[in-house]
Amino acid sequence: MTAIDYLQFVLAPQVVNGLALGVAVVLVALGLTIIFGMLDVINMSHGEFYAIGAYAALALAAAGVGFWFLLVLVPVLMIPLGMAAERLLIRPVFGSKDRHVTTLLVTFGLGLIVEDVLKIIFGANTQRPPTPIPGASEMFGIILPNYRLFLILVGAAIVLGVAYVVYRTRLGAMVRAAAFDRNMAASLGVPVSLVYAGTFAFGVGLAGLAGVLLAPIYSVFPTMGRDFILLAFTVVIVGGMGSIWGAVVAGLLLTQVQALASLVISPVWTDPIVFGTMVAFLVFRPQGLFGRLGHA
Amino acid sequence: MHDRLTQSMRASHLLALLFVLASLGLAAIGAVTGDTFYLRLGTEALIFAGLALSVDLLLGYSGALSLGQALYFGIGAYVSALTLMKVPSFWLAMAAAFAASLLAAIIGGLIANRVRGVYFALITFGLAQVFAKVVYNTRELGASDGMIGIPVIEIGFGPFSVSAGSPVGFFLVVLSIIMGLYALTAYLLDTPFGRVLTALKANEKRVPFLGYSVWRARMAAYVLAGLIAGLSGALYPMLRGFVSPELMFFATSGNAVISVILGGVGTLIGAIYGSVLLVILKSIIGSWTEHHLIVIGALFMVCVMFLPKGLIGFVRPRIEALLMRRPQAGPALAEPARLTPAALKSGSAS
Amino acid sequence: MTSAIIKTLIGGLLAATALSGGAFAQSGPIKIGVVTPLSGTYTPIGQQVRWGLELAAKEINAAGGVAGRQVALVFEDEEANPAVAVQKAEKLFQVEKVDFLTGTVNSGSTLAVAQLAERNNKLAATTVSFADSITGDKCSPNMFRVNARAEQQSVALAAWLAKEKPKAKVYYLGPDYEMGRSTVAAFKSSAEKTGSATGGEVFAPLDSKDYTQYFGQIRATRPQVLYTSVAGNDTVRLLTQLQDFGLLSGLTVVGASGTVTSQNITAIGAAAEGFATGVGYSPQIDRPENKKFVEAFRAANKADPDLYGADSYGLLFAYKAAVEKAGSTETDKVREALRGLTWQTPQGAKTIRAGDHQAMQPMYVVRVTKGKFDIIDNVAAENAIGPDACTRF
Questions:
Q1: Which of A164, A261, A295, C376 keeps 20 to 30 A from C318, CA to CA?
Q2: Neighbour subunits, B (≥3 Cβ pairs < 8 A)
Q3: Least confident of B93-107, B166-180, C84-98, C205-219
Q4: Secondary structure (DSSP) of B49-66
Q5: Which of A6, A126, A128 sits opposite C220 (nearest CB)?
Q6: Residue C75, phi then psi, degrees to nearest 5
Q7: CA–CA separation, B99 vs B112, rounded Å?
Q8: Strand C363-369 to C372-379 pairing
Q9: Is the pLDDT higher at C207 or at A74?
């Protein structure tokens, strides 16, 4: 293989493809980091909410709902689900001292149940919605499917939108205040319990949105929730709990590292490398790249 | 001195005694009827109870949730299997598993104990995940197929010997090892070291003022837990004659956590009861529906949310009350109630 | 004293039930245990195994059973985990007292169950696992395989490829675990023998989300043929991503028999068009027995049978023939009867080779055309079987 060939066919596409995968990971990690940073809750069922979003999209599409409408409808439908989950499962154990561990365990149990329920409703076989935007574009010999191009753009828009809400609006200020000091925020008139439920539901809605967007690329099956979870947690830790920019940078960076590692070393080592990065950050820089939401 | 802590420990010991008696009774019935399956299933439940015991030692006493304890269980199992295939000696296999899990737990502990809380959970999860993947891809260790052909060994105790193939004989061997590990752990927790751990869980910031090293106590608990898991794992290939990478997967770690939650966190004996309960549940639900995840998941959530002390939390207070009625336990009543682990757990933060 | 009395009492009681149980077993149904994944990733395969066996049991029972005794199936979920499989298999052997066992899917479970069958002096068979080692270097006198193993599949496929694309440059993409690697190795050696060139190979981790990171290497090699041994969801992702990237035009994709199956072909959709593989079964096989089987299978399960369903269906008829020949369900007698047995299945006659307990069977090459597997080539049983590598018996 010549050097030019290597650059054009191997290295450059690797970087571009890594970008699309990076956006996918960021989309999944976004909801996770918000819930984690804001509520201090490790939502082990985040992957299953992502799966619910994908299945909802599949079912609604079969009922004739168009893809563009789904992008709005599914996240909206997920919000009451998230509210209910927070109210029924997180709230009752939120006051306990071992909140971290307890909420992690509760959401772990929830994940088990959801996975099985999805299997009962939709069957065990893999399904896949048609690609909403078919075709591929070629630039400088690099092929990129149009839908992936669209995903990169939409992903960027979603991140900007979420960042705007969290960092620039009054609502976002309340959320950050409640994350920083719950009692202080409450005494300043922030409806803390509503903000908490809303934040959890928001994270769940984002997971659902990621499900809608990624289903055409990664297909839909009951155990799909486990797919991204280690990577998403790593992104959250490396980026800093609750930091949106951190999730973006870490998500894009880690997928590039993975892509290049699979090229240079061997694909098998991608997981140990990702995990090694997580350990290194936990040990040497536990606050992550960008620090915690509300503490930055 | 009989404070409430000792009191609940004594109640646990009574439950442990009951467990042993019940096991011996069942073993006798099994031996008389010539049963194979239930005795061997019970043996397997006991082996996994060892793993759950190690999870409870970490979660219940140093407050650290390990989502990857199967790592040490698997290391014990693989090392034992490799040893047995070369030299079919029980003691050599146990010694090798001891050494390997000791080494692994020290390395793992050095990494995992840099952090705590949820980060500890994530690190242990990742550690096991990555190690399992490496084993899954290592041809010399049988890769994804695992290794079969581990011989049925004779276990020598001085002049006597028991075959690992004898259902009742090996059941009794495993019962004594697992209950021995339980007794050892319970004993250690009753020493000053154990009190430091309990104190750590209650209020970490104050422990250094008492002159104890937080890190050293955590590390000791972690290594001890790794050893218990490793020694339990070493028994697995003797029972089943094979090892597979699935023994290290999250499902195995997750089952241990579920057992601890069902049985009761921080009770030690609860982990053992919980494991047996989980095996029974899975066996019953498994023949009834393949959707056992829903039932076990729901039961698990109910325990986490409403029964923080699990099954034992239900039973033990009654036994404690019984013990209290004895005259020598009198002074315990004067002891402030908030010294119990349960009270410490639900106490306010910071 | 009292305990001794209780012991004798319990002992006597149990002896009595054991006796009556034994007597019942002679006249009662023949029990066949099925440990198969009914939950987890392999559920769809377990489903086919179950459907195939249930249909066969129904037909056998309607026709008078095996040697006049009815067949009863006992199912247990093995969760695709050897540790669970062995525990459940032991339950079936010891508690349910099954006469025969089948159903395991992943080769780890099959190997572990084979060892258990040996230690319990019972017989077992797999209808799904295709790792060569099961009837090769890790063969067991108590394990039989009625489905085609990896080598049979790759010999058939390579023979066709040599005719269709002589001297083609082949790129190999396998899942990075034992099975994936050995399947790729098996096909590579068959393909190189028939004149193909190797362009390169890559092993992607199991359950990879995105295969696009390997596309650059594939494009740079400019292969005419891509061989892959990924399975299940991984195939869905690989093929649809190849299609999205426009890489499928001009590329012949071939693979292992488990790569594209009835479970994932709908999800793959148009990206599966043209995919070719070597298999022991296809619903298209033009034989009256097969047409009848496919019809009955469809009526019962509202789905087409695939190789797993068909091979599982066929197994029960092998067992029936063996038990009737042996005149007993005793392990040694049935083993002798199974060795060298020739029996009829929907896909034609199969013969169990005595030397390694591997079924010899006609092999087919099938290609996806309009969402269905069309048969495009076939290889006679004796040309596909390969050497007997089992040295244990």
A1: C376
A2: A, C
A3: C205-219
A4: HHHHHHHHIIIIIS----
A5: A6
A6: -100, 145
A7: 20
A8: antiparallel
A9: A74
- The predicted model gives B312-322 an average pLDDT of 79
> Higher confidence at residue C196 or residue B74?
B74
pLDDT tier at A1, thresholds 50, 70, 90: low
Q: How many CA atoms lie within 13 A of B25 on its CB side?
A: 8
| Percent of chain A with pLDDT strictly greater than 70 | 96
Q: Name every chain C residue with its beta carbon within 8 A of the beta carbon of B287.
A: 76
- Residue contact B291–C39, C-beta within 8 A: yes
Q: What is the pLDDT of residues A237-271, one digit of tens each?
A: 888 877 888 889 999 988 888 877 777 777 777 77
Q: Per the CB < 8 Å rule, is C43 touching A227?
A: no
Please check whether residue C131 is in contact with residue C107, taking contact to mean a CB–CB distance below 8 angstroms. Answer: yes
Residue C262 has pLDDT above 90, yes or no: no
pLDDT category at C357 given cuts 50, 70, 90 is very high
Q: What confidence score (pLDDT) does residue A296 get?
A: 38
CB-based contact A145 C244, cutoff 8 Å: yes
Residue type, C5: I
d(CA B331, CA B3): 8
Mean pLDDT throughout A97-101? Answer: 77
CB pair distance less than 8 Å for B246 and C82: yes
Alpha-carbon distance of B130 to A130, in angstroms, equals 34
Burial of residue A44 (CB within 10 Å: 0-12, 13-18, 19+) is buried
Closest CA to C361 of C115, C211, C148, C122: C148
Q: Count Cβ neighbours within 10 Å for each residue of C286-325 and write b for 16 or more, e otherwise.
A: eeeebeebbebbeeebebbbbbbbbbbbbbbbbbbbbbeb
Strands (E), chain A: 136-139, 142-145
pLDDT score of C7 more than 50:
no
CB-side neighbour CA atoms (13 Å) of A117: 16
- Residue in C38, C82, C179 nearest the CB of B290: C38
